[in-house]
Every structure is written in structure tokens, then in C-alpha cells.
Amino acid sequence: MKLTFLGTGTSIGVPEMCCNCQTCLSTDPHDKRLRTSALIETGKGNIVIDCGPDFRQQTLRAGVESIDAILLTHEHYDHIGGLDDLRPYCANSEMPIYARQDVIQHIMERIPYCFGKEKKPRTPTMKLIEITPGKTFTAAGVEVMPIQVMHGNMPILGFRIGGLTYITDMKTIDGSNFELIRGTKILVVNALHTKEHPTHQNVRQAVLFAEKINAEQTWLIHMSHRAGLHKVMNAKLPPHVSFAHDGLTINF
Ligand SMILES: [Zn+2]
Ligand SMILES: [Zn+2]
Ligand SMILES: [Zn+2]
pTM for the complete prediction? Predict the structure, then answer.
């Protein structure tokens, strides 16, 4: 299978508007971070994890011609703001969207014109499918394990697909859910910046988490401009832990 990082930035993206910091002014393409999202090519189909406001630009850039399933981690705008742009991908069939029940509820409230009696023509045709943490389901021909993690005091989902575990927007995880990650070979996990934050891991906490999981390689995502320059930070991080960057692909 192949993972492509469609975006590796925090909710506002990098560069941030109205900011003249070193990272926002950087000309290194590795420092341009669209909102966090990933494409997984399973060999039997394509999965996209999260569908944020940069979805259109990301799928055009990556040349994504079809999508078989969308997995949603949670309902924050930077993770679902692009759902309306799914239209070209569900012109011929319903798009399965896998999410927690509370996320499904939020989506139906935010874009009611896509559902039921209120459904307007030329809106995306989505099939919202409830998933439960700890219970596997099949998407694009592969088994997916949803794993509950805490985004501050908000329970959200990470996903394990074979040797890959993908977690974004996590602050903490409890022991029983931690067990579901054990043995993962490729870990993708969020690292917001270098300071303490109430709902996100910072870089130091992400490195400690990576050490606990002890994957062959850990890729950090959902970085803000205050996480620093890609090149500088990657030189400081331990071996086997790196900042991911938009467009990076890995096989697993
Ligand atoms: Zn986020
Ligand atoms: Zn900045
Ligand atoms: Zn969030």
C-alpha cells in the first residue's frame, strides 16, 4: 500500500496569513503545509483520511482520479471543510464516509442541503457510515481499525491499516487504545509546535509517544508555523522520527 501526505499543516495551514515569521516566509517547499489529510492507495482502491478546506487543491495536485472511501477523524473544520467538493468523486455512486456517530450528526447539521428531503441537486451524494472505536471495518478492500484518542477532552479517531497507524489532533491516549497501536511499523502522529497546548501534542510529546510505540519510522503531521523550519527541525529530531511534508509518499 502507499500513503501520500496530502497536507501536513495545522488548522490554519502554513504559511499563516498576516504572519512574517521565518517559517511563513520560507521559500523551501517543505515549509508549505496545507491542512492535514492523507491518501492511501490500497491496491484495491483509494482511501482519503479527512477532507479539509484544501481538499480540492490537494486532490488536483496529487492527481487523485477516484476515491472509494473517506475516513474522518473528527468534525473540526480543518478535517471536514472540503466535503462539498466531493461532488466529482461521487457523480456516479454514493461516497462512503466513515465516522463516529457524533461526527455524522455534525455533518448533517452543517451541510443539511446534502441529505434527505433537503438534498439539493449537484450536491455530493454521501453515505454516512457510523464506526465504533476498536471495531474493524472494510474500506477500499482493506481492514481498518478505528482507535480512540483524546483531542483535549474530546474523543476522536485514529486509524490503523495493516502496519500503518495514522493519528492526528491527539493530546493523549488511554492504555487499552494504546494496545491497538502496538507493533505498528509506520506511525503518523501530530506535533503542533514546541510549546504546551491543551488539545494537541507538541513536538517533544510526539517524540516521547514515538519512542513508546517504537515504530520503524514515525512521521509528524499537523504542524503550525511555530513548529519551525522543516530542515532545521528534522536535523534535531531523533533518528526514525521526521517531520512529514506535503506530497511525501511512503510504501507500507
Ligand atoms: Zn486539526
Ligand atoms: Zn508564521
Ligand atoms: Zn481538531
Answer: 0.97
